[in-house]
Amino acid sequence: MSADQTTATTTATTTARPSGAEPSSSPRRLLEKLSPVSGARLGEFPVAGEDEVRAAVARARAAFPGWRDTPLAVRAEALGRVKQVLAEQGEHYARKISEDTGKPTFEATMTEIGAVPVLLDYILRRAPVLLRRRKVSTPIILPGKSGFIEYFPRGVIGIISPWNFPFQLAVVPVLSALIGGNTVVLKQSEITPIVAGVVEDLFRRIGLPAGVVEIVHGDGSTGAALTRADVDMLFFTGSVATGRKVMAAAAQRPIPVELELGGKDAMIVCADANLERAAEAAVWGGLVNCGQACVSVERIFVVDAIHDHFVEKVREKVSQVTVGGPDEQADMGPLTSSAQLGIVERHVKSAVAAGAKVVFGGERLQRPGQFFAPTLLTGITPEMEIFREETFGPVLPVVRVRDEEEAVRLANASEFGLAGSVWTQDVAKGLRLASRLECGQVCINDVIQSVGHPALPFGGVRSSGIGRYHGDEGILAFMNTRGIMVDRGKLNSEPLWYPYAGKVAHGFELLRGITTRSVGSLVKGFLGLRKKMTRQK
Ligand code: NAD
Fold first, then answer.
1. Alpha carbon of 334 to ligand 1 centroid (Å)
2. 134 Cα to the center of ligand 1, angstroms
């Protein structure tokens, strides 16, 4: 962390307290935030310690029964106010997001702020249907019973979020948890402390009861404190390395954990694809948010027959991408994290050393800030670091493949499995190929935008994570399930209950009925057992 554009100092201070925290006169560590665009100092932000985290969790726990018992319609009404605040403050928030991350303000507006009302509308519409108690069918072997399923909140949810989409990836999990009656303690990334303040402002403005959303500010130490605190579930978005630590901490209790981790998404370009559209998509999908999206296009598999033609189209388009800070209205900004810039440089250098060709870009831009040129590489092979590890930067690595079979095999030859895309004008073939990709989401003839489809569950397989959010799964992820069986309670005993004497033969008859689905044997078996019950009265 200190290697990044936030650096730590220790000062005696009580400034910029997280909401509701007690004033403290003990020295607090402060993190200095530098602009990714210019390197200028943007401010200092406090790091909450273990005690502050525990106190926040205690407040969220105290608020839990009240929020849980608030009718769903009232909770929904309160959360719906987020849309009103975004309508009033969205522009201001988007500019703050750009200042903190360096991303273009159009991207901040559409992919960060704009995503929230769409996903929230789905949550508000589906939760009343999904969370209602529902009846399930009861098999004949349980005569006189009926079965119901209902959901109840897990309790206090610890949510830890990353810096790449710092607004959306904090706000949406919080809303998804709150709708079902959970309370939340949120710890956002130290690399984007300005956005952390924006998110705090949003939740303050919607006016939830005290303790329903607690926000603690800080770095990895604050996140680690939250994983050790008295929470009932951890929802983590971030790197695989930290995800492992979060899961290990959750295992100590044990509590459920959802992990939304990294990706190495494949784009498979078939010979019959609309190459113009595919080339546009490759450029946008690889460079949007300066490539710092978990679902960025990170490997482009192009079949041999069209490889050179396609690469030429991509080269033309990459060369037209403008780079600059938010004030320059450019297409692509700087990397938000300076540590990430180092990783991107390393991946490109090692790929070139191993035989890859730089078709465009390939190096840091000679200007202040954390800018790296939009980069197109060909000749990528599976042994290269850039094929195996998440680059998380503005790099398009192209892999030449014989055919679609080889593309699918290599796409799946990865530690990751978050999302992917297939490009063909034969949608039936696209669907067949999509079903063979080992990942959580696939687009056909599109890229990344499936994440914004509110009904589609999102999440990964393998090292890309555990669990799903968005869609119905994203609401249920924060709920416990309760099964209820009802018997009207008229009989004094049950065929299965004591005593067993004289019941064995009837049991065998019943077993025959269950295994052969013979209604005759079931009825005979049950009547036999019922008679025994009656005689023993
Ligand atoms: P990170 O793991 O460095 O940090 C994520 C969060 O964890 C931060 O808030 C950080 O302070 C906190 N943290 C650090 N150490 C911790 C610890 N020991 N215990 C608890 N919390 C701790 O990740 P990042 O660099 O912020 O995010 C980038 C990564 O996130 C990339 O790998 C990206 O692919 C992934 N990501 C995944 C998704 C998804 O939905 N699958 C979305 C966005 C980003």
1. 19
2. 37
